[in-house]
Design goal:
heterodimer, A: about 375 residues, alpha/beta, Rossmann fold, 2 domains, 7-stranded mixed beta sheet, 5-stranded mixed beta sheet, about 35% helix, about 20% strand, globular, B: about 475 residues, 5-stranded parallel beta sheet, two-stranded antiparallel ribbon, 16 helices, about 10% strand, transit peptide (chain B), branched-chain 2-oxo acid dehydrogenase activity (chain B), metal-binding (chain B), 3-methyl-2-oxobutanoate dehydrogenase (2-methylpropanoyl-transferring) (chain B), oxidoreductase (chain B)
Chain lengths: ~375, ~475
């Protein structure tokens, strides 16, 4: 499904807001993976294929299991391929002892993963939806995050990676839409990473799996099928804690992550028509985050806008905003703007009202530039 | 397996104590068949093969789960397979279940409480018909010395806290037998995930008094680098994962550890401890279920000491304690007298053998009593009777009971006792003195190990903190070297 909607946009691998808004891709059980099969060869001679985000995740998991015999993939319903198809083919190829279903128990999944990782394994755990990660909150916050520190580096669970689909999807309501990243950004000892596109997802996920620290990796479920781009077939990693300027500009800096970047990109394009030059930064890793890249950009543009789907109050945008005001106060020409989700539970019928849409961002860009 | 049958009149008695399945088997076979099967196989290398095999054979022929009739005390779990045809059984993804015309609810309890396995009576004599693993003089003396050492550690560290020299302490008084005897029954390769009232396991494995003192003082020789409260011990070389305060979080982790041991085909299991209160946590149930489903070699040892801080077990659960929770998860379980070192030792030896040979979790509920306060932050006389504490301290003392047994064997004397106590006391006082004099960890340890590397935010914060310290040195403890 949604195959006709899929197209590649530039090097971002992003989809248009219109496509995203018209797409209805929230499905919990899909019979078979749909992947495109166009193969191209890059200038470096490496093969790449145009694939969607879940296929990119799937490729990363294949590589992770193939390159490390001590790697394991587990979670609810992962054996048959997962409700989003991210684990397709893994159990067949690597066997039931390395790719397996767990009982429906998030604290059990993460606790089990910590123990497995503590024994020197790569434990790649899936929490089926980020909305359901909270039963595992204690295991993540009090156990995984402090495992190394509290033991004086005698023990660690750095091999643990927790993957979880997050964010809006068009009709997910309260419990299939949330963006809980800020809760985890308040926890020293773990990393939080969110990719924006298939190419990013594959490279970042492999980095997370191989990183010597526990990582929470949130996957933008809206993009699982909609975002398609050329993804190298080989094993590659993208650096953590390094933000990327994905669009250069001079008038205002926009900072975001994950699926929201496609909306921000649309706003940047619209703003350009009004002669406003926007610089767009993908933070990628939320903790420990790359402050320097944002600081350098804001020193250039003098203005900052942060956007995320999660509720505005206490969101990670607040942290970015405060940090940049601390460092760039005299250079700022306008208050830092935040275009985020509302401080309500994530709604169903009212989702279009709740969301930090393109026009909300566009308005904020204009009022910040014209402050 | 050197199991020692002491005047065993009936093998079935002892099996009944150890195998929940026995009841089913017994009823099905009316005894006779089973007896012959068992007597032939019991002495074999794996004494539980019989149960698995015959149970599997039995189950394969079909089974029926009947609920009890109102008022009946015993749940009859299985009956003959005559009724098992298409019309009378339901095939569903979880297996084949017989239909019944009786609307019977399974009773909330079996009526009779699960008995408690013990070897020694209160006077330290082996009770009639008991079966237990023989303990050599050398091991027995070492076990007894370990229990006494734990007692002395508790007394002296407790006093040290009262003097204000360490910030906190938590005793194991009353639970010395569970600590030491369970540790003695394990192999050093078994990975231990403690709660926090099991320092005796670490002691048994060779963690020195100096190492205990270093942790309690949080000095620069503490492996935890002064980051955690006293008693949060951990030692990589002893396969003893660092204690964390949250209750029961270690239990699902133990299942993951055990899965790794299983994948590596190690001759070892994971062993994890909890209190009675811990069994109310979600993590307990998560752990038992995932361990059972994943078929991993892990021993869950519950120290049911009657009290979770001030909450008595009567306000903790309505079940017959903890042991009965195992069966619901498909886990073989036993209840033992936690104040009987030989019973703990024997049951953990057997649990370990079954866990590893059969790749399965085992639940052990050890009944005991927390003779001390919950911790130095607690005064338990505010919520429980002093004479109750005294009864357990005196009449049911696990160390005294084991000593009587060792003395009756001629392995221990009053002279040995006073020599041991004075030696340990001396060593411990020296260790404390040295730990107290040893410098605190360097300030840099505040920032290291949060991550494997040192991210910029922490570098920045360390730099800023150091500038503040220079400006306001009076705000900071002078004994932490910069």
């Amino acid at each position: 499904m949604a195959q006709s909607l899929v197209r590649k946009i530039g090097r971002l691998g992003l989809i248009s807001a219109k496509e995203r808004n018209s797409a209805s891709l929230y499905v919990t059980k899909i019979r078979s993976a749909t992947t495109t099969t166009t193969t191209t060869t890059t200038t470096t001679g490496e093969e790449s294929k145009s694939i969607n985000l879940f296929t990119a995740i799937n490729q990363a998991l294949h590589i992770a299991l193939d390159t490390d015999p001590r790697a394991y993939v587990f979670g609810e319903d992962v054996s048959f391929g997962g409700v989003f198809r991210c684990t397709t083919g893994l159990a067949d190829r690597f066997g039931k002892s390395r790719v397996f279903n767990t009982p429906l128990c998030e604290q059990g999944i993460v606790g089990f993963g910590i123990g497995l990782a503590a024994m020197g394994n790569r434990a790649i755990a899936e929490i089926q939806f980020a909305d359901y990660i909270f039963p595992a909150f204690d295991q993540i916050v009090n156990e995984a995050a402090k495992f190394r520190y509290r033991s004086g580096n005698q023990f660690n669970c750095g091999g643990l990676t927790i993957r979880s689909p997050y964010g809006a999807v068009g009709h997910g309501g309260h419990y299939h839409s949330q963006s809980p990243e800020a809760f985890f950004c308040h926890v020293p000892g773990i990393k939080v990473v969110i990719p924006r596109s298939p190419q990013q997802a594959k490279g970042l996920l492999l980095s997370c799996i191989r990183d010597p620290n526990p990582v929470v990796f949130f996957e933008p479920k809206w993009l699982y099928r909609l975002a398609v781009e050329e993804v190298p077939e080989n094993d590659y990693m993208l650096p953590l804690s390094e933000a990327e300027v994905i669009r250069e500009g001079t008038d205002i800096t926009l900072v975001g992550w994950g699926a929201q970047l496609s909306i921000m990109e649309q706003a940047c394009t619209e703003a350009e028509k009004d002669g406003i030059s926007c610089e767009l930064i993908d933070l990628k890793t939320l903790i420990p985050w790359d402050k320097e890249t944002v600081v350098v950009s804001v020193r250039k543009t003098g203005r900052l806008l942060v956007s995320h789907e999660a509720p505005i109050t206490g969101g990670f945008g607040a942290e970015i905003s405060a940090s940049i005001v601390e460092r760039c106060f005299l250079r700022l020409e306008a208050p830092v703007a935040r275009v985020c989700g509302l401080d309500t539970p994530f709604p169903l019928v009212f989702e279009p009202f709740y969301m930090p849409t393109k026009n909300k961002i566009l308005d904020a860009i204009k009022s910040t530039v014209n402050y | 397996m050197a199991f020692w049958l002491s005047r065993s009149r009936s093998i079935t008695n002892l099996l009944e104590k150890r195998i929940g399945l026995f009841k089913i088997l017994h009823e099905r076979s009316k005894g006779s068949l089973l007896h012959s099967r068992i007597s032939g196989e019991f002495i074999s290398k794996n004494p539980h093969e019989f149960s698995t095999k015959s149970a599997a054979a039995f189950l394969a022929t079909g089974q029926r789960f009947n609920s009890i009739k109102t008022g009946e005390q015993q749940v009859e779990l299985a009956s003959s397979d005559e009724d098992d045809d298409e019309n009378q059984a339901l095939d569903f993804p979880g297996g084949r279940v017989a239909f019944t015309s009786q609307m019977n609810f399974i009773s909330e309890s079996s009526g009779k409480r699960v008995p408690c396995y013990r070897v020694l009576d209160d006077d330290g004599y082996p009770i009639t018909d008991t079966i237990y693993e023989q303990v050599s003089k050398e091991v027995a003396v070492r076990m007894y010395s370990g229990m006494v050492t734990l007692q002395i550690m508790d007394t002296i560290f407790y006093e040290t806290q009262r003097q204000g020299r360490i910030s906190f302490y938590l005793t194991s008084n009353g639970e010395e037998a569970i600590n030491i005897a369970s540790a003695a029954a394990l192999s050093p390769d078994d990975v231990v995930l403690p709660q926090y009232r099991e320092p005796g396991v670490l002691l048994w494995r060779g963690f020195t008094l100096q190492e205990f003192a270093n942790q309690c003082f949080g000095n620069n020789a503490d492996y935890g680098k002064g980051r955690q409260m006293p008693i949060h011990y951990g030692s990589q070389k002893h396969n003893y994962l660092t204690v964390s305060s949250p209750i029961a979080t270690q239990l699902p982790q133990a299942a993951g550890v055990a899965y790794s041991l299983k994948m590596d085909k190690k001759d070892a299991c994971a062993v994890t401890y909890m209190g009675d209160g811990g069994t109310s946590e979600g993590d307990f149930h998560a752990a038992l279920n995932v361990a059972a489903v994943m078929e991993v070699p892990v021993i869950f040892i519950c120290r049911n000491n009657g009290w979770a801080i001030s909450t008595p077990v009567t306000e903790q659960f309505r079940s017959d304690g903890v042991v009965v929770k195992g069966q619901a998860y498909g886990i073989r379980s036993i209840r033992v007298d936690g104040n009987d070192a030989l019973a703990v030792y024997s049951s953990i030896r057997m649990a370990r053998q079954m866990a590893i040979n059969e790749q399965r979790p085992i639940l052990v509920e050890a009944l005991t009593y927390r003779v001390g306060h919950h911790s130095t932050s607690d005064d338990s006389t505010k919520y429980r009777a002093v004479n109750e504490i005294e009864h357990w301290r005196a009449a049911r003392n696990p160390v005294a009971r084991f000593r009587k047994w060792a003395q009756s064997n001629g392995w221990w004397s009053d002279e040995d006792e006073s020599e041991l106590r004075s030696n340990i006391r001396k060593q411990l006082l020296q260790a404390i003195q040295l730990a107290d004099k040893t410098e605190k960890p360097l300030l840099a340890n505040l920032f290291s190990d949060v991550y494997e590397d040192h991210p910029p935010n922490l570098q920045e914060q360390e730099k800023s903190l150091r500038e503040t310290i220079k400006k306001h040195p009076q705000d900071y403890p002078s004994d932490v070297p910069l």
